[in-house]
Structure formats: C-alpha cells, structure tokens
Amino acid sequence: MKHTLLGAALAAVLAIPAFANDYMIMAPASPGGGWDSTARSMQEVMVAEGIAGSVQVQNVPGAGGTVGLAQFASTASGDPSQLIVGGYVMVGAILTNESPVSLADVTPIARLTGEAVAIAVSASSPIQTINELVDAMKADPGAVSWAGGSAGGVDHITVGLLAKAAGIDPTKINYVAFSGGGEALAAILGNQVTVGISGVGEFLPQVEAGTMRILAVSTAEKWAGTDAPTLMESGYDVNVQNWRMVAAAPGLTDEQKAAVTADIDKLVNSAGWKSLLETKGWANTYLSGADFDKQLAVEIEATTAVLKDIGLVK
Amino acid sequence: MAMDPMILLYALIGVTLGTAVGVLPGIGPALTVALLLPVTYGLDPAGSLIMFAGIYYGGMYGGSTTSILLNTPGESASIVTALEGNKMARAGRGGPALATAAIGSFVAGLIATLALAFLAPHIVKLALIFGPREYFALMVLAFVTVSAAFGDSAIKGLTSLFVGLFLALVGIDQLTGQARLAFGVPEMLDGVEVTTLAVALFAIGEALFVAGQGAMGADKIEAVKGSVWMTRADWARSWKPWLRGTAIGFPIGAMPAGGAEIGTLLSYAAEKRLAKNPEEFGHGAIEGVAGPEAANNASAAGTLVPLLTLGLPTSATAAILLAGFQQFGLQPGPLLFVTSPQLVWGLIASLLIANVMLLVLNLPMIRLWVKLLTIPKPWLYAGILTFATLGTIGMNPSPVELAMLLVFGLMGFAMRLYGYPIAPVVVGLILGPMAESQLRRALSISQGDWTTLVSTPVSAGILFAAALALVVPMILRLRGRGEVLSRLAADED
C-alpha cells in the first residue's frame, strides 16, 4: 500500500506535463459524497499518471446533481477541457425534478465504476433472511420501515423494484429518506427502523465489526467482501447496480470527443486507478463509446419506468 | 508519537490554515480538507490526519472572528456568536469578545477532546438511542427555549420566526423528493443556504441600513473602550457559560443528526435564561458569546465520536476526514480502536496540542484584529459588502445565489427599519427543516400513530422539559408584580 502511494507520488514528480491536457472536473455535489470522491480520485490519478498536467475539481452542489448539470451545460459548451461526474442518482433526479437540462445536453463519455446496493439489518434484528423480510412486507407493507438515501435515488428505486418483484404494491412501501449515510446508518444501528438500504461499502465495516447483517445484495452476481445472497438467488427478479459516469461538455467535435475518451481510457487502465478502486471498494465497470451510449439509454428508460411504478414520476 | 516535531508541525499548519479558512466566509473546513487530500498523498498518514483535524478545530474557531468584528458569520455554527459578539465589538469591547471566544473554544476543545478519549464508546451508545422522535422532541425544546430568548416583542419575534419557517419550505422535500416553492429554478431546489441568509440579513442588511442613515449615523463604532483584554468581571461572567456550552455542545455534536448549530442555539437560550441581567442580551452580553462559542467547538469534537467509533460521518468535514482515513487504508468504525490504537490515541493527543496552539496563535492576534474596527465606516462597510459577496460566490458560484443574497439583504434592511428581530428568521431556517423531516420520519415509522412521539422515556422527557420551559415563565409572570404583568400584556398583543 505504502509503496504504491510512494510510487504514485514519485510518478507525479517525474511526469512530464508538456503534452498533457489540463482538465476542470465538476462534482455536482458537496465535498464528501460519492461524486465528489469520484472527481477527486480522477484528479489524483490523472495528475499522478501524467495523463493531465493540472486538474481542478469544482463543487456545485444541489438537487441530485441537476444544478451542477444545468450550469455545466450552459457554461462549458465547446470546451474540451471540462468534465462532469454523474450517475444513477442524476438520471433519477433529472426525472423527479423535471430538470430542464438532461444528459442529452452534455456529451456522455464513459461509465467508470459500479457498486451494489445492499439490504441490511442490525445484528439484534429478529429478521434473518431476505425472504423473512419480504414475508413481513407482504403481511403489512407499512410495518416494514426502510432507512435509505434521498427519495427517488438508487436505494429507493431498489426497494420499489423488490416490492414489485415480490408482488407488493410499490406505492405502499414505507421508505424513510435520510440525508447523508451517517444518519441512516445510525437509525439502522439504533433499531429505529426495520431495515436499511445503502451502498454495500457503507455496510461492510459494520458487518466486519459484527453490528450489522447484510440480507441481500442487488447485483446479478455476489459482491466481493460479503457472502450475502443476491436478490436473484433469493427468488426476486431484481438487478440494480449503482454506477457513476463522466461526461464532457456539449458541442465538441468528434476529434475532441475522441481525445477526451482516450484520456479517460488511459486513466481507467492505469495502475493508480486500479489500486484506488480497490481502496474505495468500487467495481471497475468501465464502458465507453457507442456501447455506453446504448447502455445509458436503457438505464434512463428503465429508471423512468420504475419511478412511475413507485409513484415518484407521473 | 504526538510530541514528534514533524507531527507538531503538521498540527501547526493545520490550525493556521483552519483559522484562515474559518475567517474567510465561503471557504469551509470541508472544502479545505478536500483540496489538501491529494497534496498529502505521499505524507505519513498520522501527520496528515492530524493536520486535517487541526483544520477542523481551527475552522470552528476562526469563524467567530468575522462574526464578532464584521457581523458576517463565516459558517452556520458561528451565526449565534454574531448576535452578542458584534454588539460588544461596536461598544468597544471587541477585544474581550474575541478573547472569551478564544479561551472558551480552548476550554471546550480541551474538555471535549478528553471526553472523546474516555467517553466515546459510552456517548455513542447514548447517541444511537436518538431516533427521529427524540430528535423531533429536541427540536421542539430548541424552538421553545430559543424563541423565548429573542426580542422584546413576542409578536415581532414570532413574525420573524415564521418568515424563517416559510423560507425553510423552499426546495426539494426530503421525504418525497417533490419540489416545493422552487418555481422551476434549479438552484432553488436545494433550498435557501443558511449562511447566505445569515450573511445577507446580518451583513448586507446592516450595511444598507448604515448607508441609509448617512455617514452621521447614530451608533458610532468605538474601536476600543477600556482594556483589550478580559477584565476580572468578564472572567467571572465567562467561565460558567464555557462549561455549560461544552456540556450542551459535545453530546449534541455526537448525535448523528445533531450538528453544531443546535448546540449553539440551545447554549444561547440557556445563557439568557440563567444570566443575572438578561436585559443585557441583545446589547452585547459576554455570556452570549462565551457559551455558544464553547458549544461550537465542543460539537466539533463531538462529531468525531460517531466517526471514530462507528465510522459514521455526520458532517461534510467528517465525510472528508473519513475519505482521508480510507485513503490511507484505515477504516474508522468499531474496529479502529482495536486495529489502529496508536493512530487513534495519537490523533487525540494531537487534538489537545492543536487546541493549545490555537490559543497561542490567536490570543496575540486579537490586538491586531480589533484595529479592523478603526477603519472609517464607509470603507469598513464597503469591505464587508465585498467580503460577503465574495464569500457567497466562493461557496456556490451561481447568479441565483447572488440574487438571493441581495434580496435577503434588502429584507434585512426592511426588518431593521421596522424593528423586527433578525435572528429568529435564521433560527426558523435552521430548525424548521430538521423538525419537519424528523417529525415526518417518526410518523412514517409509526405509520401515523402520534403517540409514538411520547412513547420513549427520552422523547417524553425532552417534550416535558419543553412544556416546562413554556409554562413556568408564564406562571412566574402571573405571580409577578405590575411591571412584569405589563410586559406580559405587551407580549400578548
């Protein structure tokens, strides 16, 4: 660990910035969240690996990233040195906020990382398996309270999908939105709610310490670090993975877009990025070019359908 | 480890930077730590974490300086400090105000850090008892005690409070994700920023008011009257608020949904209630600076309790600190005390050292700071306007944010003109959303059963205390003599 850090620092010193591009990355969120740390991780590795000479991160928080997105679309147009970070939550927020600016107004470059959503209870909870939990929901959906992130976000969507897959009316679920992971975790640990839902990385340290139990993960395959079953294995047709992406400014020429994509490609294939993903517990779900454009369209369509189902979008 | 000269150097860099960013509005400790994360890449983990913690303490500390001298709170936790602190500064008592803030922060930081070292595992158990209904009860207590502490006219105070509560409705409803009163403006989806409102009402509103009165304005600022240092009487009036502020701020800071603002508000209300001469409040009572400043620093140490023991980041700065820990492959949480005891104890020891350094660094600066007040009025207020505007842009570079600053500035001017108190607006904006979302969470969990609010001893106890705080003064007033009765009559209009 220490050696890679030292190596990266050395690389930073030795990097020749003469032919490297400069970048400004917008994190459309406050410092400390997932997008912010994605942007800052990109900054760290791009500079350390000599992909860019200087990289700055700008935080424009607000409304699930739509405030930053709107500002980015209007001010960065045609500038190939500007990037913005986004992801699943932004797709949902564009829909629920009826945002006038959408991902069609920027140039999506690539999907970078992915993380499973985990369903967990405190160690003292009587609920042992995901099936017991779903049975309790079937008996009385309101009696099972879910603590998770912001309304309409990936956590909320996953609960809605699970309810739908289990034949429960998704509009009846008792989803309690908390701001910030810390508060939701405290509510789960303090047994204030029946069950919690969040990125698997937030729960793993608690599981290690024996204070929480993961009932299931939302991805198609098991997630590294936990032997909890997937929702699919447990008999519910749900496959959700939270993902984060990077986009460039609108109005770029094909050459400019290709150059940015090449830089992101270098970033993702660098040793520094790989070791960083390991530290952060993110999966490498790199996808770029036409494949990503196709996937993004699929995601937007699926998210719209789910949000309609759980009554957040009309 | 903590006495290693390099570690001491990191602590020194941290507290100096922290004080600087605390003084500058718009740049908070969270952003500073985030900016420094890549810089500390190759450094020794213990050293960089200690530097970050120094920035955190320093930021909490530096915020008071601009609050007191310029009536421009740099961050939301020092809004309350501006209430009495700036009044003191205009009466030539800026020196003692800064000194009681500095020493109060030191005392609070010291006690709270020791409490962090020895009580963290126990405090965190208490913090977990607090769920939505307990937080709601706490908000009710804060509303009752704080609104009683502001202003002489109840009707004007309540009007201001409701303006604040109204502003608090703007933005995305946390529980359903629906936009309220945003009128399709994306920047308004996130609601009104507390520091923007506070800076607008306090600083811009006042600058306009002073300009409106002309250069010959009635209240002349005296830079220094009497000693720059605290007198014996100042000490006697300060030490109890320091201790009370610490006792209020630390546990509330340790609660995952507590935050620094509630502690400062409750401390202010408590000091006003307990003061020998409550009529001094609103005209520069030193207790009103000493208590909230202590509470503010104690809550900073409190925030580290859930971070270190549970791995729960409960503020933006704590979230970045967590990222810093993870960058070095350390996972804060229940196991940190077991897996890296050396680092935890080193961090705690360095916090104590950082605390001493802050005092040493800041006390001699007071003489310099108060010189700011000798700047001629037009220049001073022009400076305040620039400072406030730059700070707002620094925090959120958007024209809508600037427009809000101006509109609320005009509102602050109008409120001053017609004698409406300003602080309750900010209080409404801080407490309103917290009370609302906690109440709705509690009711959602209980499926609409209102008895849930009194179903645990903790929530019932806090609500009972709130009821007492409301009723007891009424009874006392009824029993009082004519003078008190007349005030009651005035309150009921």
Structure notes:
Chain A is an alpha/beta fold and 314 residues long. In chain A, 42% of the residues lie in helices and 22% in strands. Chain A contains 11 helices and 10 strands. Chain A starts with a helix and ends in a 5-residue tail after the last helix. Mean pLDDT of chain A is 83; it is low at 1-19. Chain B has one domain. Chain B is 72% helix and 1% strand. Chain B is built from 20 helices and 2 strands. Chain B has a two-stranded antiparallel sheet. In chain B, a hairpin with a 6-residue loop joins strand 1 (171-172) and strand 2. Mean pLDDT of chain B is 82; it is low at 481-486 and 488-493. At the A-B interface, helix 1, helix 2, strand 2, helix 3 and strand 6 of A face helix 2, helix 5, helix 12 and helix 18 of B.
Mean pLDDT of chain B: 82
Backbone shape of chain B = globular
Gap between N and C termini of chain A: 49 Å
Instruction: State the separation between the terminal residues of chain B, measured CA to CA.
Output: 64 Å
Helical fraction of chain B equals: over 70%
Q: Structural class of chain A, please?
A: alpha/beta
Number of strands of chain B: 2
In short:
The complex is a heterodimer of chains A (314) and B (493). Chain A is an alpha/beta fold and 314 residues long.
